[in-house]
Design goal:
Layout (H helix, E strand, L loop, with lengths): L2 H4 E7 L15 H16 L4 H6 L2 E2 L2 E8 L8 E10 L4 E9 L5 E9 L2 E2 L11 H6 L9
Antiparallel strand pairs: 1-4, 2-7, 3-6, 4-5, 5-6
GO molecular function, one term: fatty acyl-CoA hydrolase activity
Family: Belongs to the 4-hydroxybenzoyl-CoA thioesterase family.
Pfam families: 4HBT_2
């Protein structure tokens, strides 16, 4: 796996409909910003949500943590970085939101997703071979 596969970055302009009367982004929208970066990361390995479903697995979110450092404000351009940090038994993705102009850290956090077999509804205790193949860790034909 190369670093370019493990990380993705997206730029987001904080829209008016995401802010409160003080022009500060409402805290709940940070999950949405994480999701945009998460999808960009999953696209890099060709295993975004449609491919997950087609491979027979759902990957529900089971944990998310957010640490707010500085507020994002209306019209501010932010960079949201997503980095895959664990993949053997779960998907753990670390996030960092930066002000694009200054590079100041605004927010950091992580999310955890686990594989669930769509046919049986059973939780998988390790990541399925299809994910490891997408990451280049095993052959797509191995069990």
């Amino acid at each position: 796996m190369t670093k370019s596969v493990l990380e993705a970055e997206v730029a987001i302009d904080i829209p008016f409909h995401d802010v409160d009367m003080m022009a500060v982004a409402w805290h709940g929208h940070y999950c949405k910003y994480f999701e945009v970066a998460r999808c960009a990361l999953l696209d890099k390995i060709a295993y975004n949500y449609p491919q997950m479903r087609d491979s027979g697995f759902a990957w529900p979110l089971v944990d998310i943590r957010i640490r707010y450092v500085k507020p994002a404000r209306f019209g501010q351009r932010v960079l949201v970085r997503a980095r895959l940090s664990e993949w053997e038994h779960r998907l753990k993705i670390d996030y960092l939101i930066l002000d694009q102009a200054s590079g100041d850290r605004l927010t950091k956090g992580y999310s955890v997703q686990v594989a669930v077999d769509l046919n049986s509804g059973e939780l998988c205790w390790q990541s399925p071979p299809v994910l490891l193949a997408k990451l280049g860790l095993v052959s797509p034909c191995s069990d």
